[in-house]
Amino acid sequence: MVDIASGSAAPARIPATGGASRDAAALHRAIFIGLAALLVVAPFALYPVFLMKVMCFALFAVAFNLLLGYGGLLSFGHAAYFGMASYAAAYAAKVWGFTPELAILLGTFVGGLLGLVFGALAIRRQGIYFSMITLALAQMAFFFCLQAPFTGGEDGIQGVPRGKLFGLIDLSDDRALYVFVAIVFLGALALVYRIIHSPFGQALKAIRDNEPRAISLGYRASQYKLAVFVLSASLAGLAGATKAFVFQLATLTDVHWSMSGEVVLMTLVGGMGTIFGPLVGALVTVTMQNYLAQFGAWVTIIQGVVFVVCVLLFRQGVVGLIAKFIRKPL
Amino acid sequence: MPEIRPTDDATGSAGGEIVLQAEGLSKNFAGFSAVSGVDLAVRRGTIHALIGPNGAGKTTCFNLLTKFLTPTGGVIRYMGRDITRMKPADVARLGLVRSFQISAVFPNLTVKENVRIALQRRIRGSSLDFWRSESVLHALDQDALALVEDVGLSAYAEHLAVELSYGRKRALEIATTLALKPDMLLLDEPMAGMGHEDIDRTAALIKRVSRNRTILMVEHNLSVVASLSDRITVLARGQVLSEGDYATVSTNPRVIEAYIGAGHA
After folding, report:
1. Which chain A residues touch B160 with a CB distance below 8 Å?
2. Cβ–Cβ below 8 Å for B104 and A210
3. Rounded distance, CA A76 to CA B159, Å?
4. Angle between helical axes of A100-122 and A221-247 (0-180°, round to 10)
5. Looking at the complex, does the CB of residue B59 fall below 8 Å from at least one CB of chain A?
6. Cβ neighbours of residue A241 under 8 Å, at least 6 residues apart?
7. B145 inside 8 A of chain A by CB
8. E strands within B107-257?
9. Per-residue pLDDT averaged across B165-183, rounded?
10. In the CATH scheme, what architecture does the domain B18-104+183-264 have?
11. Which of A57, A58, B60, B111 would staple B34 via disulfide (CB 3.0–4.6 Å)?
């Protein structure tokens, strides 16, 4: 945790061997295809709503991991982008009658815009101070949502109509919505993969590893940090907006600081700085919440224990550990 | 960059026109004056060393010249251009590139990728366009590998930088710096923490890369300074004590008293 607090996040270190990058790319492609196949068969065995919840949180964690794992920036306020986007999409769909895709686009935009403002303020400081600024700003966003009339206060925005996608496909059917969410999820995952492997992503990793050195090579580091912050907030917004349609609900839970904490947990359990770690982390966390629900308040304690054990036993997370074992980045 | 050497001479000790110049450079930290009124002129094609006892203000001076610190007073000119208020990344883009005291590599990137980061700014798509494929980077691989070979690291091209020994990290750092094709290098204690073998190898490397370039270095190892530098500036208590070639400064009684003498006392 000290590493994270100092802002110099050290992701799973994978020893590379000759020609490794091409091997790794082939492996990643295979995992992508496997994942898509899994999403096709999964609804026959599990509740679609549960799967959609996992996908929304996985996307949220992927967005967060882009910032933490590849940008080296620990935001403690990602619930703000997730929750505000959720409110924006729910309100647009319910009150203005937006179609789902437009409402989700609006939510994504709101997340990104908020990320631009908050990010521009936060990246002026580093390490723990950066995290504290993001937390403070997110708390302000929470109290705004608590007080603002359009959010419905403690009740939230309920009964959000799922509507018709492009005005054609009725999403009130869980299966139709499932297909839509799966496409959004896979598309966003592919986009993040591309970002990580773009020239921009390379420069970002360099800045994460050694910011002064990157600056001395002529990189304007703060532009890169702000850009990744906005990308991460937009994708968190995409996740939150999509979630509003899955549950037909936007509430204060989505903007609460505990949501910011949960996404940190998912990312660390799965493995920060890995591509597939956040997916595993989200699956583990959401599964625990759903299937351990009968234990009531104990879920939080069980989660806490899992988190502590995880950090003590394998700091690189589940996927980070596997990646180290097979000596390939995942 | 065409070289203009109005006063070119065989030894190169006098050098060409002034490339980097500081006038009245000062820096105060909360009332403490770390550097005060330093004048410095580095001429084209020379290796200029900045030496001085501990706490003399060498590193502060160095950070001021590379813009990692903002001076409280004075002017810095690079190739006749006032860079006093410029940002460090922009100074680097002008061809004035620094190294760091502790080896500055990107630990979680491979050796090849480390060098490629420096080359990357050459291509379009080096900026913020995050949607571009990494395949545009493969076009730079050959140049990157050539630079890696140049410093004798070919066998480690696909290794992560974190796995390299200290001396090899420094070599990688030099390869990365050279990838920018800088006109001027500022080296912050290039021999710090090195064993004898590494020192000789690095000294030879510096001598080699100094061809067609200007170098300013901060260095503690006096034998390295004596053998490499054309000109030496001695700092003490934030001020210039003496300047000249090694023979001149090493016989200056004030320098002996403040620097070398302190060691003999």
Report:
1. 13-16
2. yes
3. 34
4. 140
5. no
6. A85, A86, A88, A89, A103, A104, A106, A107, A108, A111
7. no
8. 184-188, 214-218, 231-236, 239-244
9. 86
10. 3-Layer(aba) Sandwich (3.40)
11. B60
How many CB pairs below 8 A link A and B?
Answer: 119
Torsion angle, CA of B108/B114/B119/B121, rounded to 10 degrees? Answer: 30
- The two structure tokens encoding residue B27: 């820096």
Going by pLDDT thresholds of 50, 70 and 90, the confidence category of residue B112 is very high
How is chain B split into domains, by residue range? Answer: 18-104+183-264, 106-163
> pLDDT digits over B199-221, tens only?
888 888 888 888 888 999 998 88
Burial (CB count within 10 angstroms: exposed 0-12, middle 13-18, buried 19+), residue B49: buried
Angle (CA) A126-A132-A137 rounded to 5° is: 115
Nearest to B96 by CA among B107, B109, B113, B80: B80
- B72 or B133, which is more confident: B72
Which positions in chain A touch B176 (Cβ < 8 Å)? 217
For chain A, the structural domain boundaries read 20-256
Using CB atoms, pick whichever of A16, A201, A216 lies closest to residue B160: A16
Banded pLDDT at B178 (limits 50, 70, 90) = confident
Contact (CB<8Å) B176/A201: no
Nearest residue, CB atoms, A218 vs list B89, B113, B136: B89
Across the interface, of B100, B133, B160, the residue whose CB is closest to A15 is B160
Residue A65 in this model has a pLDDT that exceeds 90:
yes
Alpha-carbon torsion, ordered B96, B102, B108, B114, to 10 deg: 30
For residue A40, give every residue at least 6 positions away whose Cβ sits within 8 Å of its Cβ, in sequence order, or none: none
Tell me which residue has tokens 């409280």.
Answer: B72
CA-based nearest distance B212→chain A, Å = 20
> Which chain B residues in 161-220 lie under 8 Å from chain A, judged by CB atoms?
162-163, 176-177, 180
